[in-house]
Amino acid sequence: MPAFEYEALDARGRKSKGLITADSELAARRALRGRAMAPLSVRSADTRTRGGAAGNHAAPTLGERLSRQDLSARELMLVTRQLSSLLGAGMPIAESLGLLAQQGGRHHMRRVLMAVRARVSEGERLSAAMDGFPKSFPAVYRAMVAAGETAGGLELVLERLADYLEKEQAIRNRITGALVYPIVLSTVALGVVILLMTFVVPRIAEQFTGMGVTLPMLTRAMIAVSGFLVTVGPYILVAIVALALLFPVLMRGEPVRRTLDAGMARLPLIGGFLRKSEAARFARTMGILVESGSVLPDALRAAARATTNLAFRDRIDGVVRDVESGRSLSDALQARGWFPGLMLFMVAAGERSGALGEMFRRSADQLDQDIDGAVTVGLNLMEPGILLLLGGVVVLIVLSILLPILQLNTLALG
What are 304-317's pLDDT values in tens digits? Predict the structure, then answer.
């Protein structure tokens, strides 16, 4: 049964918004009147229905655009976990989606779930119903759901998807939380350094330049850097702000993103970490898809869509071509060069034993442990590294001020 968004006045004249299911817009208005509510507006919650006659409707208002927000990563994780539990308990898909929509928190979450439920009630498969919301349900997510529907194990696929999303969310939250203090520390320390170089050092330099003495090399270097910052600093600041505003626009173009992704993946230390992270995501996705019954080329294409690194995606596309031409998966992965040796070994073992999905899953678990250890070490080293670096800069500035004073005292005593 289709879902409709409504705006109506209740018996006390208060305006309220919500979702209602009915056979048609007219039936939805009748149902609202049956609840002693005066409907102000009723429209389909299905974006596909609205978009199909876009030419006959006015442009959406700001309120409508805000009401069409997509599911966040956390909301998708919660929906996946709850939907898996409900399906595992034997509840039908449409009924499960309706129950989740009723319990949903924000309005846009209920709208998306009710729209998906409406399509499922009309006879569509769950993966096809999710196609109308590509930003809420990513392509690889829909591919995994479709594989689960085909293999008859949808609740198991959703459970593994929820585990996968929870791990990514946990890693993301951990890194974000651990980076807060170093970022604040770096910002404050950098501000102190800039303040010293642009205000304190120039004032002291004025005192020294008129004394007719040869200043130490460190002091002259600091005065030169200070003069550069005072003269060119505003232009540098404007350039940084302009680049920050322009960067998101440039990243929309695939050639720029592909070049940047390839360059980042080749950097020392950081590049290895990024390649291992992408390989872990690839292995996790492949494990779920293969164990769900997906054909290998289709699973590879879906896994390629799961990666955010375009250079890595190009390599997976090359693997797809090699596999379709008859090459073994382990050989095709090894030829691309960016996949860890452990994963290659386990994939080869999985091909020989017929347990490819399980081996992908085990290699993903091992790579996740390696990544977790690398993140722990990196974050533990970051804070003292920042303190040492910026502390060293402050010491150099202080020495550049003290050395001329000591030199003048020596001359005065001599």
Answer: 887 878 888 889 99
